[in-house]
Design goal:
Length: 153
């Protein structure tokens, strides 16, 4: 196998893991396609910011949401977020999606993800990209796949 092909497959694997980890929750919640498709991540954010649950976000709600997140993160109270403080805010924001994704991968609900459960979304992704079903993914198949997605949306 050529080095370029190995690098490409490695990049696909890493991308797939990242997208599977962070993107699947939106599909699981019925917001549209995985990876935040059709507004998935934006809808989750909207629901968090719509503090009174009336289906509309006001500037005041947005400001209150930001103040809550910022205030929660500003552990030393100096009015600014240092990297460690920002990291805590960021991790809190993505934790719910991470837990949702873990649960969606844990097909048998035993609180553990087996290699087979972990591989399932990667296998589906590989199958979507391997258009000619020859067991390999080429650059042209990736380009073709992305071109088809643009035309569908």
């Amino acid at each position: 196998m050529q080095l370029q092909t190995k690098i490409l497959l490695g990049c696909l694997l890493v991308t797939g893991l990242v997208l599977a980890a962070v993107g699947g929750a939106s599909a699981d919640r019925g917001y549209g396609g995985g990876h935040g498709g059709r507004g998935g991540h934006m809808m989750q954010m909207f629901e968090r910011v719509d503090l009174d649950g009336d289906g509309q976000v006001t500037r005041a709600e947005l400001t209150e949401y930001r103040n809550q997140r910022f205030g929660d993160g500003d552990a030393n109270g100096d009015g600014a977020l240092e990297l460690a403080e920002f990291e805590a805010v960021w991790l809190a924001m993505v934790r719910e999606r991470m837990v949702d994704r873990f649960q969606s991968l844990d097909a048998d609900g035993d609180g553990r993800i087996t290699a087979a459960e972990f591989d399932q979304p990667l296998d589906r992704m590989f199958g979507r990209f391997d258009a000619d079903e020859d067991g390999t993914v080429s650059r042209s198949e990736i380009r073709e796949h992305h071109g088809q997605r643009r035309h569908r949306d």
